[in-house]
Amino acid sequence: MITISDLSKVYGQGEKAIVALDKVSLEVPKGEIFGVLGQSGAGKSTLIRCVNLLERPSSGSIFVNGQEMTTLGGSALRQARQHIGMIFQHFNLLSSRTIADNIAFPLEVMGYSRTACQQRVKELLALVGLEQRANAYPAQLSGGQKQRVGIARALAGQPEVLLSDEATSALDPQTTHSILELLQDLNRRMGLTILLITHEMGVVKQICHQVAILEAGKLVEQGRVGDLAARPESRLAQSLFPRPQSYAAQPGARVVTISFAGNSADEPVLSNLIRRFDLNVNILSGNIEKFGEQRVGQLQAEFVGEQFEQAVDYLRSLGLRVEVNN
Length: 326
Ligand SMILES: Nc1ncnc2c1ncn2[C@@H]1O[C@H](COP(=O)(O)OP(=O)(O)OP(=O)(O)O)[C@@H](O)[C@H]1O
What we know:
Number of domains: 2
Structural class: alpha/beta
Oligomer: single chain
Number of strands: 14
Bound molecules: adenosine-5'-triphosphate
Helix content: 25-40%
């Protein structure tokens, strides 16, 4: 649905040039939620704004639904943008217009008749659960409600793709959760493809099927969220499952990190281990995360016992990944 190839963006020239994106390539399949995760200054906003050409790339190509965006200009670009909705961190609502009129705005631009516009606005208000607030002004709404208006406005022209530029960064955790639920619901019910940028791991955990990590303008990792989480060496796993920086191992103890994925997270692995291999186990850290139906976890523990090697072999025979750390 979205294919980005070798996308680069340089701001400024000569000594003052800033490389915001450096040969970024990624593919967002139709109907998926794809998150781009990165710290401040990594290039996330630049990336998402290049997709609908709010920012012109320096080089590279961007296909959205088969159309090469970078070749477009004028009315062809305006038309292409009607198939790409966008929501923003600070909502970007028109303060002098009511909620209904904010949502109607893109429809007016698209040339909808007054009646067709009113009908569509009603549907959109229902879609985001704001039927009762049609005549309110943005200043009378909470942040979460404002973002619902932003989503309704973005979906007015029935786009196949929604771009989300840090849409929950200005919201409290509970409101963030409900907005992400709404996005997930729209993705499931309407097959909406969503490309979102965020600096929050929680957003990726809650709704993304795939994730790419952007660091200083370069994509340093990408894949399915559950798969990356199950690979202890991935950046995603390291940030999901932080390990203690240092540990004073007991005399004779071996420190191991066990990664669980899929069904193995449901097995009573530790009690089997203790019983079958007569081990003493001292847990140092542990966490299990859920991605859709898949559970992924990491446990770090000290093992003390004569049958340490056999115990590690047993764990590996179950398909678990085991690292021995000392
Ligand atoms: N219009 C611009 N002119 C010059 N430099 C810019 C411009 N926009 C962004 N940059 C620079 O490009 C780099 C990437 O910025 P960008 O805003 O894309 O990052 P980001 O990951 O979205 O960060 P944040 O979350 O802080 O917005 C930064 O070094 C930034 O200073």
